[in-house]
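The data layer described in this paper is built around a simple, fixed record for each protein. Because each token names a local backbone shape, the row as a whole describes the fold. We quote a single record here, exactly as it is kept in our systems:

***
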Amino acid sequence: MTGSTAAERPRQRGPRGGDADTRGDILAAAAEAFATQGYGAASLRGIARQAGVDPALVRHYFGSKSELFVEAMRPLRADDAAVTALLATPAEQRGEAFIRLALSLWDDPVIGARLRAILASIAAVDDVGAAFAQVMMRDVLLRMVRPDHAEDRAAACATQIAGLAMGRYVLRVPSLADAPVERLAAIYGPTFQRYLDGDLDLSD
């Protein structure tokens, strides 16, 4: 028999349809493009080319560039073991537990780099901030808060952790940048806990 075997042949590039790996291929190509080129320089067409798919498939799976960016770069997904463990934490301890989890992700070299890229893009592109907040609220925060005023509670939690991350990892505020995780969990955890399940005075 002549010619190369299927295992030896290089993967064929070009437009292709919705096989089971297509979405994952797009996410992998997007993560690489955003990490190496930045949000502004990376293009959906270039990402599609790298993934070996038609550009229309990128929009089919992810809608917009900002949505693809958040999906490719986000550190947690709804079914992750870390999220499952967080939701299994006693309700009265989740404030500090969430702060610990969030900071452990930021401190991870790979995940932290992705999160810093998101923060930098939020400052420049409005759609990125909205998309990231929606994902975080849907996958984690709305599953943790009390049902009354759930959207308000989740939004307060999202802004709390975003502000802490900006101060610690981007602005490098000394008291935040150099603080142990447990110290920050003790400082921010009670406020976060109140947003999760405390009484909120939202009367008109």
The chain has two domains: 22-63, 81-197. The domain at 22-63 is CATH 1.10.10.60 (Arc Repressor Mutant, subunit A).
